[in-house]
Write a structure and sequence with these properties.
heterotrimer; A alpha+beta (97); B mainly alpha (299); C mainly alpha (224); A: 97 residues; alpha+beta; 2 helices; C: 224 residues; 0% strand; globular
């Protein structure tokens, strides 16, 4: 039967492997040829990974019920406190951009 | 409309994207599948009017370029059928429907090619018309399709240059070579004017409603005219529409195409439709044994 | 450049040009879209090889690659009959593909050892690209060999094309072809009279007619 393979490609040296699409083929040997053709015939890829779709485990649900913002940059708002601290120290406020 | 569908609609209308495994309303899935299937069919059927010219290309360089261009189109069909398959319709079913005349493909590919002039005009102007649509489809709400559009746009960028190069070479050649281009333009202009479809307003177009398409047909056509009519005229070539011209406000005027004829053509009654479909029918019969041989479990 | 070398160059170039043309006949009608794309790549490589070889020969002859490719009379082409056959049938196509690649590999090995550095160089480049063709051909042969339905078709194709395959190489290199093919198939191949280079299949005239129809529609020297 025909197997669906997910194809990942590295566009240039140093880049991460990125998902490029999928191909279907009878087996790995055919899949290699076909992936080369679809994602490499124009010299557009440094390297390819082929993974049978069945081997891919997807995770797409992430839970954050209590809004644990402290561990992200958007969990902080320092403007007010900075203003207060400068006033207390008597230092001039930073020049506005 | 039920709550789930309403939520989905809101999601896509505010720019949200949909992936393969996501829930989608039946109507969305049905319209999307048909749309992508027609695109796949069009890429495939587009190959047939052009392929003979690989064999007749007058230089090695043109032979190579045309082979690569057509190869891209077959490759696009392959990728697009894969998208359709992930939406629930296997490729075999698509090909069966195509060959039986039950499904549609784009108007332009129902027309015959007659000369090397056609090769230049098609690669330049038909691909230019297609790229305008494809760029707009980059924003399709169905992300797997939008991602393929990116690859397609990248690959097709050389097609237009190749086509224009062929045309420029012909118009600077012998009188007979120049005439090849003019004659081809005279025949291909009407299909090109119909390429982007009838001017249904965006707010009446179900494809825009679901954000499968984001550009109204008339906008695409205006973009095409604005970009390419001046490029045709600057070569001293004419287009067979006396009304064609740009108003002061920037809008292009033209003779309204016969939209009923477009419907007839797309439903399989174009000048070369029957011949094209028969051609592919032949190839299907020959290779059933190959499919069986390849798909059977190895001993 | 030695006349024998020039002859070799043109034989190789003509083989690649004509085979590339034949491979392009599958465009739009290959059994799977994937094979359509694969054969298009193979055809482009072959035409690319032909072009490079013609360019080398053209310098010697004071002409250009396109003139060599398109403008010679039929008798001056040196292509092997194997590549001239019109066989729009999959088992024949795969059989020819594999037989040609096997013979070509042997020929290229010899050319890589040429005294002429340019010939050796171009043979090495071509050989590197052909690796991919060999992988593709071998994959298909292996698949058809193990299929109960396909095997007899392949065997029939190999039998028909065998004398032509023998004709791709000269007396010196031919035994190696026999050895490699028999090793792969696991059986002996029949003793056959090679259909050698020097005479042309009837199909070549038709091919050249179509190949040159556009080019001939303008005077010599016209740009395309």
């Amino acid at each position: 039967m025909v197997v669906v393979f997910e194809v990942f490609r590295r566009e240039r040296e140093g880049a991460a492997m990125q998902h490029a699409g999928s191909i279907s083929a009878p087996d790995e040997r055919f899949a290699e040829i076909y992936a080369r053709e679809q994602y490499g015939r124009r010299g557009e890829s440094e390297a390819l990974w082929l993974v049978p779709r069945d081997a891919v485990h997807e995770i797409d649900e992430f839970v954050d019920e209590f809004d644990l913002k402290y561990r992200r940059v958007d969990g902080y708002s320092i403007k007010e406190r900075l203003k207060e601290a400068r006033e207390r120290a008597g230092t001039a406020p930073a020049r506005a951009r | 409309m039920d709550a789930r569908t309403a939520e989905f609609l809101e999601h896509v209308q505010s720019g949200g994207l949909v992936e393969t495994g996501d829930w989608m309303p039946d109507e969305y899935r049905a319209r999307l599948t048909k749309f992508v299937e027609m695109h796949a069919n069009s890429e495939l059927m587009g190959v047939l009017p052009e392929r003979d010219w690989i064999l007749r290309a007058p230089t090695l360089q043109r032979k190579l370029a045309l082979t690569a261009k057509i190869q891209d189109e077959v490759g696009h069909a392959q990728l697009l059928y894969r998208v359709v398959e992930d939406l629930g319709k296997p490729r075999e079913a698509c090909l069966d429907d195509l060959i039986a005349g039950r499904s549609k493909f784009h108007n332009v590919f129902h027309y015959p090619t007659r000369t090397w002039g056609d090769v230049g005009v098609i690669a330049w102007l038909v691909d230019a018309a297609a790229i305008i649509s494809q760029k707009a489809l980059l924003k399709c709400s169905y992300a797997p399709y939008g991602r393929i559009m990116r690859k397609i746009c990248w690959e097709e960028s050389f097609h237009i240059l190749h086509g224009r190069d062929v045309v420029l070479t012909l118009v600077t050649g012998t009188d007979a070579q120049r005439e090849l281009v003019q004659e081809a333009l005279d025949r291909w202009w009407e299909p090109l004017m119909m390429f982007h479809g009838n001017p249904i307003p965006a707010d009446e177009d179900p494809m825009v409603h679901w954000r499968i398409k984001s550009q109204a047909n008339e906008d695409a056509r205006q973009q095409f005219l604005e970009g390419y009519v001046p490029q045709v005229w600057e070569l001293g070539l004419t287009l067979p529409d006396a009304k064609l011209g740009r108003r002061d406000d920037g809008v292009w005027e033209y003779t309204e195409p016969d939209w009923e004829r477009l419907m007839a053509v797309v439903s399989g009654h174009g000048p070369a439709s029957a011949e094209r479909l028969a051609f592919r029918r032949l190839s299907r019969a020959e290779v059933d044994w190959v499919s069986r041989a390849v798909l059977a479990e190895a001993a | 450049m030695k006349p024998t070398d020039l002859d070799l160059l043109l034989s190789l170039a003509d083989d690649e040009l004509i085979l590339g043309w034949r491979d392009s006949e599958w465009t739009g009608i290959a059994p799977f879209l994937e094979e359509d794309v694969a054969f298009s790549s193979i055809a482009q490589n072959e035409i690319g090889h032909a072009r490079a070889l013609y360019e080398l020969a053209a310098r010697e002859l004071g002409t250009d690659a396109d003139a060599l490719a398109f403008d010679r009379p039929l008798e001056e082409y040196r292509s092997a009959p194997l590549v001239e056959l019109r066989r729009l049938e999959w088992a024949r196509t795969i059989a020819r593909h594999w037989l040609y690649e096997t013979a070509d590999a042997i020929r290229l090995e010899a050319l890589k050892g040429s005294d002429d550095p340019e010939i050796a160089g171009i043979a090495a480049k071509i050989d590197r690209e052909e690796v991919y063709h060999r992988i593709h051909a071998e994959m298909w042969i292996d698949r058809l060999l193990v299929s109960e339905e396909a095997r007899p078709r392949l065997d029939e194709a190999l039998e028909e094309l065998w004398p032509y395959a023998l004709g791709v190489l000269d007396d010196e290199l031919r035994p190696e072809l026999v050895r490699r093919v028999e090793a792969k198939l696991g059986r002996g191949m029949p003793d056959a009279e090679p259909v050698s280079r020097g005479s042309h299949e009837a199909e070549l005239a038709e091919l050249l007619e179509e190949m040159t129809i556009v080019r001939r529609s303008a005077p010599a020297g016209a740009r395309w």
